[in-house]
Amino acid sequence: MSQTDVKSTGSGDQTLLPGMVRQATMGPMGAAARDHHNTINLEGADENDSGIGVCGWILTGLSWVLVLATMPFSFFVCFKVVQEYERAVIFRLGRLLQGGSRGPGIFFILPCIESYSKVDLRTSVFDVPPQEVLTKDSVTVSVDAVVYYRVSNATVSVANVENAHHSTRLLAQTTLRNMLGTKNLHEILGDRESISSDMQGVLDDATENWGIKVERVEIKDVRLPVQLQRAMAAEAEAAREARAKVIAAEGEQKSSRALKEAAEVLSLAPAALQLRYLQTLNTISAEKNSTIIFPLPIDFLQHFMGNNRE
Question: What is the pTM of this model?
Fold first, then answer.
């Protein structure tokens, strides 16, 4: 295999830098553990300085001579330390060293011919700025979200993309607009969890080749235009008033039926009307004992009215 050949045993092939081969994908936990223990196998990486050419051998020898000649002062330049949450990706003469990233702890680099990049493995938070989105039902809304992601493979994040963090953030903004553009307004307002889950899956699949793991996506706020808010408020108020009128009408209907049934019962038992009258007097006397009510039967008045007609 030449130095520019690429071999991959993961979910898909990808093009890497010359002399570098993509490692097999073993899932998020496997990639993180493999990167933590520095067991990344890159067949095209520099192994025992093989394949670096005559110039590479000469520069490497001169670098070692320089280190030995300036001891112990060279140790301050050659020994580097990375924190527990960091990894160092080392390049020698532009080629990735065997073993992938280094750290945490202390490691050794040769001056002039080796360079390294520090990669932070902690979870990063990106606050997606408000995005103007045109929904499927032609409503313009402003939506902002928050994305939680981390570097799952330090070597791939340095070798496969120029700026993994910046690329992930731009992709998050674009994905948010694209996904919400296929949803109706009521779906955006009432189904945020499903949209967040779908967006996380899309971002995670897209950033896997960049060594990025998207852990969580949350939609923070959905802001509607003022005119639309007023229209929705008026619609909701009208709907509530309509329901209130329907409920009141149903109550009147039920009460009228109950009164009709009560009248039928009283008509069958005239003494029941007298008892109801006494109960009413008892209730009135308990609250307003100064009030005197004298019932006058209607039939009695009709008798006198009939005599006047004669």
Answer: 0.59
